[in-house]
Amino acid sequence: MAATRPIAALATALTIAVPALVTGAPQAATITVACSALGIGQRLCREGAEAWAAGSGNTVRFVAMPKAAGDQLALYQQLLAAGSGDIDVLQIDVVWPGLLAGYLADLSGRVPPGTLDAHLKPLADNATVKGRLVALPWFTDVGLLYHRTDLLARYGRAVPKSWAELEETARIVQRGERAAGRDRLWGYVWQGRAYEGLTVNALEWVDSFGGGFIAPDGRVTVTEPPVVDAIAMAAGWVGTISPVGVLNYTEEEARGVFQSGNAVFMRNWPYAWPLANAADSPVRGVVGVSPLPAGPGGRASGALGGQMLAVNDNSPNRDAAADLVVALTGPTEQKRRAIAGGYNPTIRALYDDPEILAAQPFVAEVRRAVDTAIARPARAAGMRYTQASAAIRDAVHGALSGRQPAQDAMEELDRTLWRISRGGRW
C-alpha cells in the first residue's frame, strides 16, 4: 500500500478495502481514487469503482477530498509537485488539464481506439493538452438560461434568443410586476461576485460577441471591441434589470432569488433545475430552460463545466488505473450515473438513450447548449490560469461596479495579463 503521509496533511485517507473476487491474481493492484466528497457523487463514484474492482481482481481505496474546488486543486498540486504516487486516479475540473498536464499520464496508448471520439467534442478537445490525452471526460455542465414561463406568457413575450431581447423582456416584465406591487422582482440574476463564476459569466458574454480574453495561441485579446462592448453591456444591467447585490452573487445567491420567485431570468448550471422544480419550490412547474442568449452576430455561448478523470503519472499502477478510468467514464457507468444522480453524460450517444431521457428529460437542453459551449482559456494559460482568471474577474468586477469604464478596465487587464504571461509566453 502506498504511503499516505502527504495526503494526511490536507485530507483524510480512507482505506476502504474492496476484496477482489479473484484472490491471488498475479497482476492485482490497489488503486487509490480521489473523487467527489459530496453526497450522491461520492456514493456513485465508490459504487462504480467497487464494481470494477470486483470484476478485475484489483482493490480500490478512496481518499476523502476537500469539498472546495480550490482546496482540491491545492492538494493535487502539492502532492503531484512532490512526485507523490499516493493517488492513482484523480477527479479533476474541466479547467485543470492545462494546469496539471505535466503531472498526468498520457492515456493515448492506454484506452481503446475511438474512445475519445465518442465524447462531446468540446470536452474531448479540453482533455488533450499539447498532443497528450491527459484525462477522459466523466460528466458535463454548461451555462444555461432559466426563465419564468408564467411571467413570459402573462406579458406575451418569447424566450429571448439575444441579449438585446433579454434586456427588453426583463425591463417590461420587471416594470409591469412592480407596478402590480411586486417590488422585489428583478429581471435577471447571475453570478457577479469576484470569483471563478464571474470569469465564467464574462467569458459567455464576450464569446457571444465574438471576442475572447486569451486566444488559443496565447495572445491577450482583452482590448478588442467585442470584449469591451460585452463588458459594457453587462455593466448596464447592474441597478437596472439586475440588483446591485448581484455583484456579490454566486450560483446559490442567484438561485435563491430566482427560486423564491423574485427574478424573471437566471443564468446558472444544470444543477439548479431539479431544485427549482422540487416539491417545496415556490416556482415549481413554471420554470423553463434554454441556451444562453446570443450576441449581436447571432452566436450563443455557454461556458463549459464538468469533471474528468485522470491518472497520476507517478502512479506505480498506471495501466490498472487507466483501466479504471476507462470503466468509470464508459457508456454503462455514465448511463447509470445519469439515471441515478442526474449527471449529464459526455458520451454523445447517451443523449438519445430512452431510459436517460425518461429519467432526466432536461438533458436534451444540455446537449443543445454543449454544442456551442466555450471552454475557459485554461489550455492556453497553462500553469498560470489561476492567476489569469483572478485578473480577469477582478477587472470585470471593477467595470461592473462602476469603478472604471469597461475600456479602461480592459486596458488595465491587458497590462496585467501581459505581466502574468511573461510577455505573452504562457
TrEMBL record:
Q: Where is the signal peptide?
A: 1-28
Which keywords does UniProt give here? Signal, Transport
Where does this polypeptide localize? Periplasm
- Where does the sequence pass through the membrane? none
Q: Where mainly located?
A: periplasm
Q: Give the protein family.
A: Belongs to the bacterial solute-binding protein 1 family.
Q: What is this protein called?
A: ABC transporter substrate-binding protein
What organism does the UniProt record list as the source? Azospirillum oleiclasticum
